[in-house]
């Protein structure tokens, strides 16, 4: 039986814990980015900024700043993919899962599926950024040269 490099074993506990970890990273850093943005313009903080699709829009300054916070959060989550998932093949899976659960949270919070085009555009752009940058970082790490120790040779 040949050994396989990076052979995978089905581990549902690991997968669920990684999903929970990525959700925690997503909402923690989104909250921090929104708090930073709110401190710039002195607006009040609320859960509407995270879950209400009506906040995200191009018409108001708060909407544009919230969109900026979502985009910055996708960059932070890409770093989370790099640190905790570490597999380029799984970056898209975890990105879509995080945003799917966010959509479910928005659906529950608003009592209906988000209908604003700006909400969908921001989330699709954030998914693309998070997946592509996370995959790039993971692939760069995976393809790093493996150092071969070339110690002193013995003369026999």
UniProtKB/TrEMBL annotation:
Membrane-spanning ranges: 12-35, 65-85, 92-111, 117-138
InterPro entries the UniProt entry points to: Integral_membrane_SYS1 (IPR016973), Integral_membrane_SYS1-rel (IPR019185)
Superkingdom to which the source organism belongs: Eukaryota
Listed GO CC annotations: cytosol; Golgi membrane; trans-Golgi network
Keyword Protein transport: yes
GO biological process: Golgi to endosome transport; Golgi to plasma membrane protein transport; protein localization to Golgi apparatus
Keywords of this entry: Golgi apparatus, Membrane, Protein transport, Transmembrane, Transmembrane helix, Transport
Protein topology in the membrane: Multi-pass membrane protein
Location within or outside the cell: Golgi apparatus membrane
Record function comment: Involved in protein trafficking. May serve as a receptor for ARFRP1.
Family as reported in the entry's similarity comment: Belongs to the SYS1 family.
Quaternary organization: Interacts with ARFRP1.
Record-given protein name: Protein SYS1 homolog
Organism whose genome encodes this protein: Zoarces viviparus
């Amino acid at each position: 039986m040949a050994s396989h490099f990076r052979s995978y074993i089905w581990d549902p506990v690991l997968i669920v814990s990684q999903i929970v970890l990525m959700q925690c990273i997503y909402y923690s850093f989104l909250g921090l980015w929104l708090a930073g943005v709110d401190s710039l313009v002195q607006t009040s903080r609320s859960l509407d900024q995270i879950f209400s699709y009506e906040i995200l829009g191009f018409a108001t300054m708060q909407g544009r700043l919230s969109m900026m916070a979502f985009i910055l959060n996708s960059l932070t989550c890409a770093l989370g993919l790099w640190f905790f998932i570490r597999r380029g093949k799984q970056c898209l899976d975890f990105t879509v899962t995080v945003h799917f659960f966010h959509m479910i949270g928005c659906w529950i919070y608003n009592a209906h599926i988000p209908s604003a085009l700006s909400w969908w555009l921001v989330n699709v752009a954030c998914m693309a950024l998070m997946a592509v940058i996370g995959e790039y970082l993971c692939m760069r790490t995976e393809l790093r040269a493996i150092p071969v120790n070339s110690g002193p040779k013995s003369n026999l």
